[in-house]
Amino acid sequence: MGFFKRRKAKKLEAERKKNEGRQAQLEGTFKEDYSGNKKVQHYILDCCEQIIEASKEIEEEKAEYKIVTDYLNDIQILEDLPDEEADAIRGAAENVQKLDRLRDEYQNSEKRISDVQFVQMQQEEDTIPDAIIRLQTNETYQNAVKKDMNYLEGEKTEWYYNKLELLHQQKILKMLSFVLLGVFFASMVILLVLQIGFHTDTTYAWMSVILIAAVGSFCIFIKMSSNQTEIKRSEVNMNHAIVLLNKVKFKYVNVTNAVDYAREKYHVKNAYELKYLWEQYLNEVKEREKFRQTNEDLEYFNTKLVRLLKRYRLYDASVWINQSSALVDKKEMVEVKHNLIVRRQKLRSRIEYNMQNIRERRDEVDRMLRKEHINTPEVRQIINSIDNLSI
């Protein structure tokens, strides 16, 4: 299992450096001139390098093999514990497992408020409730003022068109009065011609013409006077609507500036969204407090679990913090144990393979030395260095 991998011991690192120093010494020796035996010397050097590399691998594999064995021994110790002691460890592990799950759920949960928004809410935590109420009030007032403004705009337009209609009527009445005057004079001429030229009695005709002219003129006069009064009233009402509209517009501009400032400040579209953001902030505060408490509890039970495990002098008690499920579920422990056994078998096979490779390379070097009759002090020093490698 990956969680059981650890760095190799410092003493193995020192041994590895010692072997590397011997390899460097070996290579330096072969850089000297050996006349016609250079090809053989290079071949022997290659074999020696292979032996050194294989020995390094064996060191690492033995170190890991020991670690895996130590972990298997730890598992065996845990499996052999009395029920009462095992229950205590299992209880602590269950708490660790539960708290780990809660922490993961929080960390993987979808954030409904960004960190920037959270910081802003936190900085203005004392003023946000009042800001929400103020924005709600301003938005309500803004809507009311807007309705008043639209109403006054309609009133102004209505009185304006009423005035235009009355002025149009005045023009028509004025034209009608001229027509009536023209008809009256024409009737007078006709009646005079009939009376003087034809000696016709036109008394009743005169009475009718004068009566019609008088009634028509009176009606036109009354209507025009009434229209003139209405025109003045329309102008007064229209001007009054304009004055009120200007006042309302001023109020609307002020409240709109206040609303826009609040929306821009909190990066929201309306008071409803600001209220929602505030509610999410309060929820996040609770969740973060719960997360903090969970971390404290997790730290407590982690420490408790390690303390319980250290009683049995395990190789690595802290590794079980990340494998608490294996302490709770026997199937998980069997799986962990199986993986470690498989890993150890692979390491053993690899060590045996490298050991065999070293023996073969060493025999090959001896064979070449005997065949080529090379037995100089330098070569013997190299062979001795290889034989002294820690395998």
Report on the structure:
The chain has 391 residues and is mainly alpha-helical. It has two domains: 2-81 and 313-387; 121-267, Helix Hairpins, CATH 1.10.287.620. The protein contains ten helices and no strands. The protein is rod-shaped. The chain starts with 9 loop residues before the first helix and ends with a helix. Mean pLDDT is 84; it is low at 3-12 and 22-36.
Short recap of the structure:
The protein has 10 helices and no strands. With 391 residues, it is an all-alpha fold. The protein folds into 2 domains: 2-81 and 313-387; 121-267, Orthogonal Bundle (Helix Hairpins).
User: How many separate domains make up the residues?
Assistant: 2
Helix % is over 70%
Shape: rod-shaped
Overall residue-averaged pLDDT value: 84
Q: What is the rounded Rg? A: 54 Å
The helix count comes to 10
Label the structural class. Answer: mainly alpha
Largest sheet properties: none
Order of helices and strands: HHHHHHHHHH
Q: What percent strand? A: under 5%
Q: How many angstroms does the end-to-end distance come to? A: 26 Å
Outline the low-pLDDT stretches: 3-12, 22-36
User: How many β strands by DSSP?
Assistant: 0
Biased composition (Basic and acidic residues): 11-21
Region (Disordered): 1-22
Biased composition (Basic residues): 1-10
Transmembrane segments: 176-198, 204-224
